[in-house]
Amino acid sequence: MMKKTLIKITMLVLAVVLAVGAVMAYYRTKVAPPQAVEMKNPFDMDLRECVDSMKQQGLSTKDMERFYHVFLDRAALYLRDTLIDGSQYEQRMFAMLGQYMPRFQERSEKVFNDSAEWNESRLFFIEARSAEIKALKNFDGETPLVKDTDHDLLLTKYLKTISSYRSAWLLVRNLHFGGIDQARQTVAKAREYSEMEFLPNCKSLRYALARVPQKLEAAHYAYLNGLVARLAYYGLSSTAYETLRIHVNHQLMLYKNNAAIYGKYARGVDALFGRAAFYARQRSSRMYMHRLTPQMPSAPADTIASNIYE
User: Rounded to whole angstroms, how far apart are CA atoms 209 and 172?
Assistant: First the structure.
């Protein structure tokens, strides 16, 4: 009897389970309304696919540049025509830069690490592209997209490197002595350039910058030589000559007191002081002898005139 009761209970439970399952299946397929299908923005998907294309292994530089331009053109168009929203635009732009910037950095630093003079056309490309990316705007059309980001810092460094590289060459190719203060500033600037992150990689520039103190010292010393030589000219009035002598001594003292600017290339100026003193003594002797020499009296003008016709 117990056995039959247990069988009946088991069958009853199974019947209930099957009934509930049938009701749930009917509810899900017949009664419950269909779920809304999530619609994906095809224009946003297009930008995603463009970014994915930039992830390809072994992608050539030419193709990377092509995808970069295609992406920017499409992103600007889709945003302008409100085919994507601001959030989608910003997300896709940063995704694109995440793929582009490492390749751009690799190309740029290959140029900056070249030991020969840097290729000017490649510098122009790096400069133009850095400025272009820094100028990209957010979806509002006003805020710079990469402002205060790691991209911004890197691009700023590249622009500064190129500007400093050109300025350094301009400095070493136009050296001249223009006064002690200018000499000090020029030597300090050359040292600053030689200690920058990338500039010392260019061997010819590094060598030229190292020679700046030597060349400036040579120009300065030549200037002093010329000043001292002017003291050998005795045609000046006493006042003008004394003014010149004081000026020469002042310039010699300036060199002596600031010779440390030129480091190991500085020279002594005792020989120049000696020559200046010699020329001054020579002039004094000439002036003294001139005063002692009797002067022939001048003939009256009418006598000279009559002598002409004799």
Answer: 7
Q: What is the DSSP letter of 235?
A: -
Give the pLDDT confidence of 182-202 residue by residue, as tens digits.
Answer: 999 999 999 999 999 999 999
pLDDT in tens, 139-181: 998 899 999 999 999 999 999 999 999 999 999 999 999 999 9
**pTM for the full model?**
0.77
Helix axes 270-292, 238-257, angle to 10 degrees: 170
Strand partners, 144: 137
User: What is the distance between the alpha carbons of residues 244 and 184, in angstroms, rounded to a whole number?
Assistant: 25
Q: Cα-atom radius of gyration of the chain, to the nearest Å? A: 44
* Residues forming beta bridges with residue 137, ordered by sequence position: 144
Q: Which long-range contacts (CB under 8 A, 24 or more apart) does 72-81 make?
A: 72/96, 74/43, 74/46, 74/47, 74/50, 75/47, 78/43, 78/44, 78/46, 78/47, 79/139
Instruction: Identify the DSSP state of 149.
Output: S
CB 162 within 8 A of CB 123: yes
Residue with tokens 């805020």: 143
State the amino acid at position 151 in one-letter form.
Answer: H
Report pLDDT for 310: 35
Question: What's the full length of the chain, in residues?
Answer: 310
**Maximum distance among all Cα pairs of the chain, rounded to whole angstroms:** 184
As given in the structure block, the two tokens for residue 10 are: 């088991």
List Cα–Cα distances, 281 to 49, 236, 271, 284, in angstroms: 90, 15, 15, 5
Interhelix angle 180-194/150-173, nearest 10 degrees: 130
Q: Which residues contact 187 (CB under 8 A, 6 or more apart)?
A: 212, 213, 216, 261, 262
The pLDDT value given to residue 230: 94
Q: Which residues contact 45 (CB under 8 A, 6 or more apart)?
A: none
Distances (CA, A) of 290 to 80, 234, 286: 93, 12, 6
